[in-house]
Write a structure and sequence with these properties.
Layout (H helix, E strand, L loop, with lengths): L5 H5 L22 E6 L10 H4 L2 H14 L3 E7 L6 H9 L3 H18 L6 E3 L5 H16 L4 E10 L4 E2 L5 E4 L6 E3 L16 E5 L7 E11 L4 H9 L5 H13 L3 E3 L1 E3 L14 E3 L1 H19 L5 H7 L3 E8 L3 H15 L7 E5 L2 E3 L14 H7 L2 H10 L7 E3 L1 H31 L13 H18 L6 H21 L6 H17 L5 H10 L38
Parallel strand pairs: 1-2, 1-13, 2-3, 13-14, 15-16
Antiparallel strand pairs: 4-5, 4-9, 6-7, 6-8, 9-10, 11-12
Helix pairs in contact: 4-5, 5-12, 6-9, 8-11, 9-10, 9-11, 13-14, 13-16, 14-16, 14-17, 15-16, 15-17, 16-17, 17-18
The structure holds zinc ion (ZN) (2 copies).
One zinc ion binds next to loops.
C-alpha cells in the first residue's frame, strides 16, 4: 500500500504525486537517494495558507523535481498526535484527545490532497503502534548509553490548577527577544524557554502566573555534543538562517534540554520509577520520522528500507521546517542521532519564516485566516501554489494579500501564460492543421530558442537542495512567461513555421520545468501538446534534446485551466 492510508487508495483525489519508488539497495548499489521530511503538524486544527506556504510545500516541490530528473526520492511525514496542543483543543471541543487528533488529521490530509502536497507516507501514531515502539526503543538505548540524565529543575506550576504547566498551557514573552511565545520554543527567535521560563508567564487555562517548583526531569546535556555537532554544521549546506542559529547556540554554550514532563497526556517515560511523566514530543519527534520511513517501507514491502535510508551515507536527508523548529531539527535531534551512533544526520535543513495575512499573523481565534480547504475549492490549486512560491517566506516574513493573488492569476496566468499558449495553438491550427512543424533547430526567434534552452538549468538551480528557493523558481518562471509572450507579441509574423516551432518548444519546456510548482497545469498542457505524462509527471528536459516531436498533432485549441478572478 504505497499511499498514506487505505482511504487514499479508494479516493482518487488523495493519490499523491508520482509513484513512490526507492529500489532495493541490491538493485542500485551506492545510488544517492533522497529522504524528504516535513515538520509534523499538530492535529489541533485545519491548515491555513500560512501552513501551506511552509514545509509541506517545499517537501512536495523538491520531491517532484527530483523524480522528474529520474532521481530516487521519498517524502514522509507524520501527525503529531502526542502534542500537548491536542488535549487543549479537545477540552475546547468537548471531545477526547484521540477524537480531536483523528478529526484534524483527516482534515489536514484532505487539505494537503487538495493542494497536491500529500506525502508518500503520512503516519498516524495513534493508529500505528510502530511510532510508539520506535520512540520507546530509541529512548531506552539513549538511557542505557548515558545520553540522558536526570535533574531536578525549577518548573512552572499553576497553583490554581494545581498542575505543572508546559508548552501549550503557558503563554508569556520570550525571555530572549520579548515577543509573545508559548512555553517551549519562541516562535520568533526559536530559542528554548524551558528551563528558565518565559517572562510574564500565565497559565493558559486560568490566567494565573505560575510558580516555579522543583520537578524531576530527564534531560539531554548537549554540551557534550558541541564539537561533533559543530563538525556536522560546518560540513552542511543548511539554510543560512539555521546555520547562524546553531552557530550562535554553540558559541553561547549548548544547554541541558529537558525531555520529560509531569503530565497525563503523551507517551509515558518507559522507566519503572517515572510513572506520571511523559516524553516531550520535541524529543521524540526524530523517531517519528524513522517510524514514518519504516511505515513507508512496510507499505511497499521493504521492511528494511528505513534502516538503509537512515544509515547509509548515500542518503540525502532533507528536513523542511518552520524556523521555530530549528532547535529540534538542527541541534537536539542531530545530537540524538550522533549519540545512537548508527544513523546519518540531516544533509539539508531548509527553514521558512512566518507567512502573514494582509500584514498580520494568521489567527484562528480572531478569525484572521484563509483556510486551505475553502480557498483551494474556489481557486485553482496551481495558482495558489505559484503564488505561495512567488511570495514565499523563505528568508524573511512575508504576506498573503488577496489583491496580489488576483494579479498573479489575472496578469500572469490568465493574461500572459495561457493567452500566449492559446494564441500559439490557434496559429498552429490556422497555419499547419495543429501539426508541429519540422524545422531546423536554428529557425525562429533566437531569443525564444535561447529561453527554451536555458530554462531547465535556470530552474534546476532553484530546485536543487543546496540552493533551493521557491521564490527563485517562481520568479524565473514568471519572467520567462513574460518574455515568451513579449516575443510573441513583437514578432512581425506568426505564419513562419520556425517561429511557431520555437514558441511551441518553449511552451513544452515551460510545462516540464513548471511541474514541481504547478503539477496540474504542467500535465494539462503537456497532454494538449501530445506529450506522454508518466506517474512522476513530465520528464525534465535534456540538454540539446527538444521536448516536442515534430509531426505530432496537438490539440486544435488550447484549453485553459485558469479563470480570471473578479
Ligand atoms: Zn524569542
Ligand atoms: Zn491554571
Amino acid at each position: 500500500m504505497p499511499w498514506c492510508c487505505a482511504h487514499c487508495l479508494r479516493t482518487p483525489a488523495y493519490r499523491p504525486a508520482g509513484s513512490p519508488r526507492l529500489p532495493r539497495k541490491g538493485r542500485q548499489q551506492m545510488t544517492q537517494r533522497f529522504l524528504i521530511t516535513c515538520a509534523p503538524p499538530n492535529p489541533n486544527g485545519d491548515l491555513h495558507l500560512g501552513h501551506l506556504s511552509g514545509p509541506f510545500f517545499g517537501a512536495d516541490v523538491l520531491r517532484r523535481y527530483l523524480r522528474a530528473r529520474g532521481r530516487q526520492a521519498v517524502y514522509v511525514a507524520y501527525t503529531d498526535d502526542h502534542s500537548i496542543y491536542v488535549p487543549r483543543r479537545a477540552n475546547e471541543l468537548g471531545l477526547t484527545a484521540r477524537e480531536t487528533a483523528a478529526r484534524y488529521t483527516r482534515r489536514i490530509e484532505q487539505t494537503l490532497a487538495l493542494a497536491d502536497m500529500l506525502p508518500d507516507h503520512y503516519s498516524h501514531p495513534h493508529r500505528d503502534s510502530r511510532h510508539d515502539r520506535f520512540v520507546r526503543n530509541h529512548f531506552l538505548e539513549l538511557w542505557k548509553n548515558g545520553t540522558i540524565a536526570e535533574q531536578e529543575l525549577p518548573t512552572p506550576y499553576c497553583p490554581s490548577c494545581q498542575v505543572f504547566r508546559y508548552e501549550a498551557y503557558l503563554r508569556g514573552r520570550c525571555r530572549f527577544c520579548g515577543v509573545p511565545s508559548d512555553g517551549t520554543y519562541c516562535e520568533d527567535c526559536g530559542l528554548p524557554q524551558d528551563p528558565g521560563g518565559l517572562h510574564d508567564a500565565r497559565c493558559v487555562a486560568c490566567g494565573t502566573a505560575p510558580e516555579y517548583r522543583p520537578s524531576r526531569r530527564l534531560v539531554v546535556p548537549l554540551s557534550a555534543f558541541a564539537d561533533r555537532l559543530t563538525a556536522v554544521f560546518v560540513a552542511s549546506p543548511w539554510r543560512q538562517r539555521v546555520l547562524d542559529y546553531v552557530t550562535g547556540l554553540v558559541e553561547q554554550g549548548l544547554p541541558d534540554v529537558p525531555i520529560s514532563r509531569e503530565a497525563d497526556y503523551g507517551l509515558p517515560v518507559p522507566l519503572a520509577d517515572w510513572s506520571g511523566h511523559v516524553l516531550d514530543t520535541w524529543f521524540s519527534g526524530i523517531f517519528g520520522y524513522l517510524a514514518a520511513t519504516a511505515g513507508y517501507g512496510a507499505a511497499i514491502g521493504e521492511p528494511g528500507l528505513w534502516r538503509e535510508l537512515w544509515q547509509e551515507p548515500e542518503t540525502v536527508i532533507v528536513h523542511f521546517i518552520g524556523f521555530d523548529c530549528s532547535f529540534s531539527h538542527a541541534v537536539l535531534w542531530p545530537a540524538l542521532l550522533l549519540a545512537l551512533g548508527e544513523y546519518q544526520t540531516p544533509t539539508h535543513v531548509i527553514s521558512n519564516e512566518f507567512y502573514n495575512l494582509e500584514g498580520e499573523k494568521f489567527s484562528t481565534s480572531r478569525g484572521h485566516a484563509i483556510w486551505g480547504s475553502e480557498f483551494l475549492r474556489e481557486a485553482a490549486p496551481d495558482a495558489v501554489r505559484l503564488h505561495l512560491a512567488r511570495t514565499n517566506p523563505e528568508y524573511e516574513k512575508s504576506d498573503f494579500r488577496s489583491a496580489e493573488f488576483d494579479r498573479t492569476v489575472n496578469d500572469v496566468l490568465v493574461g500572459t501564460l495561457e493567452s500566449w499558449a492559446a494564441a500559439v495553438f490557434d496559429e498552429l491550427a490556422a497555419q499547419a492543421d495543429s501539426v508541429i512543424p519540422a524545422v531546423e533547430s536554428t529557425q525562429g526567434s533566437p531569443t525564444v530558442r535561447a529561453l527554451a534552452e536555458d530554462l531547465p538549468d535556470r530552474l534546476a538551480r532553484e530546485f536543487e537542495p543546496d540552493t533551493f528557493s521557491l521564490r527563485g523558481a517562481a520568479g524565473t518562471l514568471v519572467e520567462a512567461v513574460g518574455a515568451a509572450a513579449g516575443e510573441w507579441g513583437a514578432a512581425p509574423s506568426h505564419a513562419e513555421p520556425g517561429e511557431l516551432a520555437a514558441h511551441l518548444e518553449l511552451l513544452a519546456t515551460l510545462a516540464a520545468v513548471a511541474a514541481p510548482l504547478m503539477p496540474g497545469w504542467s500535465a494539462h498542457t503537456a497532454r494538449q501538446l501530445g506529450l506522454r505524462v508518466g506517474l512522476d509527471g513530465l520528464a525534465w528536459p535534456r540538454p540539446g534534446l527538444p521536448v516536442l516531436v515534430p509531426g505530432q498533432r496537438v490539440a486544435p485549441r488550447f484549453q485553459r485551466l485558469f479563470q480570471a478572478r473578479q
